[in-house]
Design goal:
Layout lengths: L1 E7 L6 E8 L6 E11 L1 H7 L9 E2 L3 E9 L11 E4 L9 H4 L7 H6 L12 E3 L4 E4 L9 E5 L3 E3 L6 H21 L7 E5 L3 H12 L4 E5 L3 H10 L3 E3 L6 H10 L6 E6 L4 H10 E9 L21 E4 L7 H13 L11 E4 L3 H9 L6 E4 L3
Parallel strand pairs: 4-8, 11-12, 11-14, 12-13, 14-15, 15-16, 17-18
Antiparallel strand pairs: 1-2, 2-7, 3-5, 3-9, 3-18, 5-6, 6-10, 7-8
Helix pairs in contact: 4-5, 4-9, 5-6, 7-8
This protein binds zinc ion (2 copies).
The site of one zinc ion has 8 residues, from helix 2 and helix 3.
């Protein structure tokens, strides 16, 4: 079988839309006919060389579509199911899976950085036979993808594909951080530093947990407006002063103590220090932002004192079979904002325009609408 995919051949290069040859499905594989794929900042990190993956590769890890075919051992999904892809499939029986830490699943962490599926193989070849790499077992910037069974998660078919795909990364990471990991409490004060896609979803998670006060902090007025749409009760921007003044304002909103739950979603030393300074003694800080893996971060040690709980998360504590259908239903019930967060829609062959817009901060979420 052949289909079209956006292939990245060189760091810093443009994608080329090429025909890809699919190898035979293994027993645990699911072939998904994709209809929508979100562009995430992690894809851009690979393109720009900040995150090293073998090339050539098909990027994309926020995908939604319909199951086309399944391997002989697959039982959880069947052809015709609407699915969202999970970028963290897991084997279910390694050291970490047995300890309910699937994000650290050993076959996943061994083979995923090498651009392979959990069995260490690639199912893709370029025309001419050259091996093509998978990205985080999803590779959704394409007409089709092959994922392990635990990476194809059925959701209600009523949710449109362009909304559903967002659940696979940004929504799960942000909402999950607030609901599943930090476990924001009703009536509490929550602060989100950085209102990109993940930060906006952390705000939604805090709202879903019935936080009493939800403070959004960002430099961009348009993002703050979206934060209001997502449920922030207070907005703090550049007009509200420097970092010390911002932290003082957060304290003033929380009886002088600081916030119960803080989410750092910007990435960088200054936002991390601000997030710590907004956290009350005994409160929790969840770090979702990223800096380069080789970069050092210096923090004021005193801001770490006081029995703070610091959580680092990549995927919001995702248990995709539990969480993806729940998030899809929240959207269908009108309790999760997704429509306002899609700021650009493009066909697959204009993928690079989406990444250009992301680099220039001109889009919050770009979704590829994939045709066949
Ligand atoms: Zn992502
Ligand atoms: Zn495992």
């Amino acid at each position: 079988m052949k289909y079209r995919a956006a292939v990245l051949h060189t760091i810093g290069g443009r994608h080329s839309i090429e025909e890809v040859e699919l190898q035979a499905l293994a027993a645990g594989d699911v072939l998904v006919r994709l209809h929508a794929s979100g562009l995430c900042h992690t894809d851009l990190e690979v393109i720009d060389g900040a995150l090293a993956y073998p090339l050539p590769i098909v990027l994309g890890h926020e995908g939604a579509g319909v199951v086309e075919r399944v391997g002989s051992a697959v039982t959880q999904v069947r052809p015709g199911d609407t699915v969202v892809c999970s970028w963290n499939p897991h084997c279910g029986h390694c050291f970490y899976c047995e300890r309910d830490q699937p994000i650290l699943c050993e076959p996943f962490t061994r083979h995923q950085p090498a651009g392979r599926l959990l069995d260490g193989e690639s199912r893709y070849r370029l025309a001419g036979g050259r091996l093509l790499h998978h990205f985080s077992t999803t590779s959704t910037h394409a007409q089709y993808t092959v994922v392990p069974e635990s990476g194809a998660v059925a959701v209600p078919r009523e949710i449109p594909f362009d909304r559903a795909c967002l659940i696979g990364c940004g929504v799960m990471t942000g909402v999950g951080a607030a609901v599943r990991l930090a476990r924001v409490e009703p009536g509490s004060t929550a602060v989100v530093v950085g209102c990109g896609a993940v930060g906006l979803h952390a705000i939604q998670g805090a709202r879903l947990q019935q936080a009493g006060t939800v403070v959004a902090i960002d430099l961009d007025p348009q993002r703050l407006e979206l934060a209001r749409v997502c449920g922030a009760t207070h907005l703090l921007g550049p007009a509200d002063g420097d970092a010390a003044e911002l932290a003082a304002r957060v304290k003033a909103l929380s009886a002088g103590r600081g916030a119960d739950f803080v989410f750092e979603c910007a990435g960088g030393e200054a936002p991390l220090q601000l997030a710590l300074d907004c956290t009350r003694p005994g409160g929790s800080l969840t770090i979702l932002g990223k800096v380069g893996v080789d970069r050092k971060v210096s923090l004021r040690f005193g801001s770490l004192m006081g029995e703070r709980r610091i959580i680092r998360s990549s995927y919001g504590g995702a248990r995709p079979r539990r969480d993806f259908p729940w998030l899809a239903r929240l959207y269908l019930e009108g309790r999760l904002e997704l429509d306002a967060l899609i700021t650009q829609r493009l066909p697959l062959d204009r993928i690079d325009e989406g990444f250009d817009a992301m680099r220039a901060h001109r889009t919050l979420r770009t979704v590829l609408e994939i045709t066949h």
